[in-house]
Amino acid sequence: xxxxxxxxxxxxxxxxxxxxxxxxxxxxxxxxxxxxxxxxxxxxxxxxxxxxxxxxxxxxxxxxxxxxxxxxxxxxxxxxxxxxxxxxxxxxxxxxxxxxxxxxxxxxxxxxxxxxxxxxxxxx
Length: 124
Known about the structure:
By secondary structure, the protein is of the alpha/beta class. Helix content is 26%, strand content 40%. The chain contains 4 helices and 6 strands. A 5-stranded mixed β-barrel has the order 2-3-4-6-5. β5 and β6 form a beta hairpin. The radius of gyration is 14 Å and the shape is globular.
């Protein structure tokens, strides 16, 4: 594993473990995720979770929308993801629409819709 990828994964895991003290005793969509647990979900499932839920998705990045926003697609649909420029630089990887990837991040539910703030990305 590249050194930069290792550090990105370490930071992501630290963020996830910090969330374990929040959301205790609470049930509903994404309840386990609110406790700092990460769940592998589809795009359709992600759309039904609560704001700030931690998720992992597998699929492809099919389009750049500009301003660090991209369209991510799996077999159930499309969702907008935000991938910071620094994350691309840190990873030093190139991904095209044919590459299968795993992304992990936090759901951001807003009036305009649901998007994922990507904290890590791995080419499969």
